[in-house]
Amino acid sequence: MTVDRRIYVKKHLAALAITVIIFTIGIMIGLQVSDLRINAITNAARLQRAQFESLQLQYTFLNSAQNSSCVAFRTALDQNIYELENARTKLEAYIEDANDEEEFMIAKREYMITEIRYWLLAQQAEKVCELDTVSVLFFYRRSQVCGDCGTQGIILTYLKERFKDKLLIFSLDADMQDPTVMLIKNTYKIENTPSVVIEERVFEGLTRQENLKEEICRNFKTKTIKCEE
Questions:
Q1: Among 10, 172, 197, 210, which one is most buried in terms of CB atoms within 10 A?
Q2: How far is CA 104 from the centre of its chain?
Q3: Phi, psi (degrees; rounded to nearest 5) at 202
Q4: pLDDT > 90 in the chain, percent
């Protein structure tokens, strides 16, 4: 009986040791993946800042020069906003999986600020380049808090695909504790999510595709075939 008990104890100790090793390896892999994600997000944020500064210089040049073409600027602006939105979506997914959100939340705040910079630049460029575009602010919250935000995002994605570079969409987390985000939210009196601001008109709650499309088309300076379809 003594021998059996010793064998029994040894088996349990061996199982415990294996469990601890596996658990430790799991933590190390998790930390490594987290670090890789943070590095990727940080590098992407740096690239976005460089691209924004380049666009800002282009805008300054166009504002001072005569007879300059805005075509390249408009294309770059739309592409950068598109890439920024894709990066934000990835970042949101990383935050959902992260055990420690702090590093990711700092990166997210940087992305929100960049979104606002692009939004303001687009408004300035619309006057200088006479762009026939419509800007949309999309206020959302994370899916655990706002069940309809994902659906509203899908609707906006469809409208973006429909109107291409004529529609510029900027996404802001309504819960982001950043003074600029809060200032814009208070300016438009955003209290519920999802909320969509098309130029100066605010749509609170989940808004149907047809209603958003009608308001978008109403703000175009010229009639487009996409509005007539």
A1: 172
A2: 13
A3: -105, 130
A4: 34
Q: Could you report the per-residue pLDDT of 84-136, keeping only the tens digit for each?
A: 888 777 777 766 665 556 667 777 888 888 889 889 988 888 877 878 899 99
The predicted pLDDT at position 30 comes to 45
Phi/psi of residue 197, each to 5°? -110, 115
Cα 74 to the center of its chain, rounded Å: 20
Tell me how crowded residue 38 is: count the other CB atoms within 10 A of its CB: 17
* DSSP letter assigned to residue 68: -
Looking at the DSSP bridge assignments, the partners of residue 169 are 136
Residue 226 region by backbone torsions, left for phi larger than 0, else alpha for psi between -120 and 50, else beta:
alpha
Q: Which tokens in the block code for residue 166?
A: 């004529």
What's the rounded Cα separation, in Å, for the pair 85 and 45? Answer: 12
